[in-house]
Design goal:
Elements: E1 6-8, E2 25-30, H1 33-37, E3 41-44, E4 48-50, E5 53-64, E6 67-76, H2 77-82, E7 85-94, E8 103-111, E9 117-124, H3 125-128, E10 140-155, H4 157-160, E11 163-167, E12 174-180, E13 190-191, E14 195-197, E15 200-208, E16 216-223, E17 233-243, E18 252-260, E19 266-274, H5 275-279, E20 291-305
Antiparallel strand pairs: 1-10, 2-10, 3-5, 4-5, 5-6, 6-9, 7-8, 7-10, 11-20, 12-20, 13-15, 14-15, 15-16, 16-19, 17-18, 17-20
Length: about 300
């Protein structure tokens, strides 16, 4: 799945709301040492308007790896209260009051009901308190924000989802046991009876040392093509095959997960087990020329490509 995309929403103004405020909003905190002497804390400015929307600045002090930082955020009230999405291009500042070399961060962000705080402008507290720094003068610190552009947006639903997987709640496996007689005498592939699993019909295709898979036992799970899956729709299936050792209970098992569709209706292993091992009397896979294959099938969900 790709990241969400947004487009201008004509039902919510849809126009670029820029130029309504040309000057940055400045927020002065006098007695800044109070923040340094406290643990993690959060402080908010009053509301201000820029580009047609209402904003606040939020300041947090955080402790990371033993060092204290000051984090400045722009918060939006409109997106949180109106359940809308707002895209903003803006700057955050920490003003150097002596050298005019401000700390600033420029970027863009999306504000919505579940995330109405933008990116973070983070500065180490020891940098602010530095003797050569003009960020703190007479225990006074000045922060700011300039919103240059803001847009009311909506989700671009056409471009949002490229593929979706709907998982099922019932994941009880269907176990199907197939007894195959006279395996060594077969010169062609063998097909089991059709059986149901996960609401669909299946069969097992077994190839005992045939020309296509010489010197191997090949086994495949085959989806009934009459399933009539919609275009670009697949079944996400977890399956396994177990060749039973009828003497020693040392069974041979392989498992996999694949997407089954009308175009790819068969998955399995062309080299499931070496044919010499199948015929080895000590392995117990053949008893009176019969072998037993046990299949486990779980339809995990339905996958759809947009």
């Amino acid at each position: 799945m790709v990241s969400p995309k947004y487009v201008i929403n004509p039902k919510e103004g849809g126009k670029k709301k820029a130029g309504e405020r040309t000057n940055p909003f400045r927020w002065m905190i006098d007695g800044f040492s109070t923040i340094a002497n406290r643990g993690a804390a959060s402080y908010c400015s009053g509301s201000f308007t820029a580009c047609g929307f209402t904003w606040k600045l939020r300041l947090e002090s955080v402790l990371e790896d033993g060092e204290k930082y000051v984090c400045l955020y722009l918060s939006d009230d409109d997106a949180a209260s109106k359940n809308s999405v707002i895209k903003a291009i803006y700057k955050l500042f920490i003003y150097d009051q002596l050298h005019a070399e401000h700390i600033q961060k420029l970027g863009e962000d999306y504000f919505h009901s579940t995330s109405h705080n933008g990116f973070c402008c983070k500065t180490a507290l020891n940098k602010i308190n530095g003797s050569k720094s003009g960020l703190l003068v007479n225990d006074c610190c000045i922060f700011g924000a300039e919103v240059s552009e803001a847009f009311a947006c909506k989700l671009d639903k056409v471009g949002l989802i490229h593929e979706s997987l709907s998982l099922k709640k019932d994941l009880t496996p269907r176990i199907y046991k197939w007894v195959i007689k006279d395996v060594s005498k077969s010169k062609d592939k063998l097909i089991s009876d059709t059986f149901a699993a996960g609401g669909y019909n299946w069969s097992i295709s077994l190839h005992p040392n045939v020309t296509t898979y010489k010197d191997f036992l090949a086994v495949f799970l085959v989806m009934d093509k009459s399933a009539s899956l919609a275009s670009k729709t697949s079944l996400y299936v977890e399956y396994s095959f177990c060749l039973l050792d009828q003497h020693n209970a040392k069974h041979w098992k392989r498992a996999g997960k694949n997407l089954f569709s009308s175009e790819n209706a068969s998955w399995g292993w062309p080299e499931f087990l070496c044919w010499n091992d199948v015929q080895d009397p000590s392995r117990g896979f053949l008893h009176n020329e019969a072998c037993i294959v046990e299949a486990s099938i779980v339809v995990l969900g339905v996958d759809t490509v947009a």
